[in-house]
């Protein structure tokens, strides 16, 4: 990520090409190759370039800040309380919406695609399982950190 942050323009160009070329090929398959197809490909590529460049520029600023103040994001003796119920539910909802769309699009590859309701239920199950796995990983990491801190004392 440091290389990409230092070379934001070049990396954004490569990433935008990786987005724009398949879009252009897909548009040329479904439509007659014309200037409209080329225009849409250029617009998608330019939008993707701007998005990747902005993200990498932000990452460059983050890397500079890490160099300035240090990289330790969580202090060792942090007794931070777990996230509130609102924060957890909002996080689940934010990840549930794109997951629903992903499950629905994945189901479209099948002959009998699932309905939106089925996609929403499957996505909710997947999001809850991933959230639970992340919670277990965080608990394990916290236990290991506390054990290392008590061992160091």
Description:
It is a single chain. The chain is mostly helical and 153 residues long. It has helices spanning 2-6, 8-30, 35-69, 85-107, 116-152. Helix 2 runs antiparallel to helix 3 (35-69) and helix 4 (85-107) crosses helix 5 (116-152). It is flat, with a radius of gyration of 22 Å. It starts with a helix and ends with a helix.
Task: Give the SSE map.
Blueprint: H1 2-6, H2 8-30, H3 35-69, H4 85-107, H5 116-152
Helix pairs in contact: 2-3, 4-5
Strand content: under 5%
Amino-to-carboxy terminus distance = 35 Å
Order of helices and strands: HHHHH
Radius of gyration: 22 Å
The number of distinct helices, counting runs of at least 4 residues, comes to: 5
How many strands in all? Answer: 0
- In terms of structural class, how would the helical and strand content be classed? mainly alpha
Helix content: over 70%
Shape category: flat
List keywords for this structure.
mainly alpha, 153 residues, single chain
What would you say about this model in short?
This protein has helices at residues 2-6, 8-30, 35-69, 85-107, 116-152.
